[in-house]
Every structure is written in structure tokens, then in C-alpha cells.
Amino acid sequence: MSIPTKSEAALDIMKKEYYPETWTGGLHRVLCMQGGDDDGSYAKNSEAPASAITLCKPMLLTAIQSMKLFFNNNEEGADHDSLRIADLGCATGYNTLATIDMVVESLRLRYAKECSLEPEFEAFFSDLPSNDFNSLFKSLSAKKSRNYYAAGVPGSFYYRLFAKRKLHIAVSLSALHWLSQIPDAVVDKASPAWNKGRAWIDGAKEEVVEAYAKQSEKDMEDFLRCRKEEILQGGILFMLMGGRPGSQPPENQLGDPDSRAKHPFTNSMDQAWQDLVNEGLIDEETRDGFNIPAYMRSMEEVENAIRKCGGFEIQRMEYKTLVEHSEDKQQEWIKDPVSYGRAKANLVRATLRPIVEAHLGPYLSDQLFKRFEERVSSDFTLLHKTIFYGVIVVCAVRI
Ligand SMILES: C[S@@+](CC[C@H](N)C(=O)[O-])C[C@H]1O[C@@H](n2cnc3c(N)ncnc32)[C@H](O)[C@@H]1O
Fold first, then answer.
1. Which of 111, 224, 329, 366 has the most CB atoms at less than 10 Å from its CB?
2. Is CATH 3.40.50.150 the right assignment for the domain spanning 23-67+82-398?
3. Would you say 398 and 239 are in contact if contact means Cβ atoms under 8 Å apart?
4. 378 CA from centroid of ligand 1 (Å)
5. Is 90 in the pocket of ligand 1 (CB under 6 A)?
6. Could you tell me if the CB of 33 is within 6 A of ligand 1?
7. pLDDT (tens digit, 9 = 90+) per residue, 2-33?
8. 99 lines ligand 1 (CB under 6 A)
9. How far apart are the C-alpha atoms of 286 and 117, rounded to whole Å?
10. Burial class (CB in 10 A: 0-12, 13-18, 19+), 229
11. Adjacent-strand bridge partners of 83
């Protein structure tokens, strides 16, 4: 849809069509990464999650090496059911396929070496129903070889997705920092937790942070309770999520000041929303009705949830940091700030476009991402800062 003017009438129509009061409550219907494979798609903007996977790969492989092997003893001797692996929050693109390949191959080699068996494997690609499963299935069928049967499982990982004791391994990579909903109080004008003037919680007032932290606690517990039912005894739950070190209070979601200044959810994003308000394209209420449903947990918060849930033993748990991009890339962008702005805008499009569009509609979403791009490419101080993403990696065994 293209809307040529910003007249009152046009804005009224856009509001009716695109500002459903309850979009925050129905988040599971709209939250997803941008599908397809154009420049603003998740498939083309998933380098940071790919680096996170590379960083934690040794931990995942070690966990698989020490995992219990599963057998059925029948009349013909030792046998096995299929081995079943789920990727929860798989999105589209290369990362999920590479992860499943890695898990299957490492298990296959172990069974061959240790008991001369060739198990069958089933891989479940799970994400919210709004995920672009079509792109994922196309990539799956384009693979030259595949040692597993594949299925898509639409649904929220904050609910049950599988029958009891179905899974041997569940992984969830760069997904659990997405909350099940925006806390109601944060978008309630009458509440002290109303998050006025910000798109996210980093640096927000205490009540906002508390509301997010409470939601995060509930979500983590719901997630674990469901996986406790679904994973077989001896099976593995491997989680990698955006996180913060324990020493950092929740209002400081991102750590060092450079990361806070430069993170795509913070300053430039708030400025872009303010630009739309200043230009009369949206009113303040519309701006304040939008919040990013993400929360970076501390190690302690994750550990407490695991202990409270029971049924899992933490085998290993670490906080790690990764650099946003390489030194070469940074030098390239310093010479060409416009391409830097474009790259960063594509990154936020890939991550936020579906939820921004549910709130604003396509035309105003385009305007927002354009303002973001302009803001980022014109702030030269940002270009010289290096930012770090924090992640928490946990390997837990179902006991
Ligand atoms: C940043 S992507 C990570 C994708 C992939 N795991 C990777 O490492 O590239 C996060 C994914 O989590 C999914 N997600 C967020 N909340 C979810 C939920 N409640 N249930 C299932 N998937 C969810 C999103 O739809 C998105 O596809």
C-alpha cells in the first residue's frame, strides 16, 4: 500500500487498518524475522547469530559426546528408535540447517563408532506460525544431501510443542530473549510502568524494567516446564540467548556505554520514532504503544529458573561476548557511512519489520526504517565505536 499524503484523513485510515489495540497481546501471531531472501531478510542478515553459534559450537559438540546413548533391546538385539532433535526458534536461512547438520553428523559418528549402529534421525524445525516456513522448506529441499527426516512445527516455545518424552535433543539459538508478550503495564498509559518515549527498556525507569523482568521470569519458567515434559531422561537442552553478565542490573541490558549507544534497539531507534512524531506522521501515543519484546537475562536469572523448574542438571553454563563485526568491515564502513547506515537498517528490518508493520502498516514502517538509516549513517561517532553482544549459553541434561 502506498499512502501519498500525511493528511488527517489518511492517518485515520491507517490507524484503523494498522493500529489494532491488541497487537501486543497477539504478539505470537506477528513476531518473526523478516522472511524471503532480499536485502532486508533474516536470511541475509543473520551474521551475528551465526557468530554466536560458532562461538558455542564446541560446547554443543562436547555435550553430544558425553550424552547418554539411547537403545531399545528387542529380539533381534540392540536397536533404537529414531533420534529426535528440535530447533526451537529456527527462523529461516543457513543457521538452523547448519546446526541440525552438525548435531546429526556428530551423533551419527558416535553411534557408528561406539556401537556400530546407524540410527535414523528426525529433525523438527519449530518457530512461531508467522515464520517464513516456505523459505526454510525451500532451502531444505535445495540441500544436496540430508541424513534426516524433516518436519516443521509451528507454535510458541512458551507452550507444549511435542508429546511427552519425544525429544532427545532440543536446541534454541538466539531466540529465548524474545518474550511471549510486551508486559501490559508497559503500554498502559495509566500505569507507572508506561514506557513513554522509548522503544525498549535499556535505561528505562525502574517500573518498566521490573515489568519486563517479571515477564521474562514467567516466560523462562514456562519454556523450561514444557521442555521438561518433552525431553527424554538423559536428553539435552541446549540454549543460547542474548544475555548480560550477573553484575549488571537489568536496566543496563547491554553493558558498556558504546554498546548501549550503538545497539540497534536503542538511541537511533528512539530518534527514528521521534522523527516520525516531529514530522506529524504519527502521534506520540502511537509511538509509545510500540515496544520491543526482548529481554537480556543474567546468568543468575536463567540459573534460578532452571533450579525452580527442576528436572534438569546444568552441565555447563557460560556468559560470552561477541564483537558486532570484523575490523575490516568497520574500516570499510568508516570510508562509506551510507553503506553502513543501509547495512544497519537492513539488520533492524530483518529483526523488527514484522512487528513494526503490525503496529504501523507498511508505509509508515518504511518511513521509520528510512529515518533509522539516515540517523545511523549521519552519526560518525557511532562508526568508530565497537559494540559487543552478550550471550548466555547453557547445556542442561534432563534427569
Ligand atoms: C534471531 S532469530 C534466531 C534464528 C536461528 N535460531 C538462528 O540462530 O539464526 C529468533 C527466532 O526466534 C523466534 N521466536 C521468538 N519467539 C518465539 C516463540 N515464543 N516461540 C517460537 N519461536 C520464537 C523468532 O520468530 C525468530 O525466528
1. 224
2. yes
3. no
4. 31
5. yes
6. yes
7. 444 445 555 444 444 444 444 455 666 667 66
8. no
9. 59
10. middle
11. 121
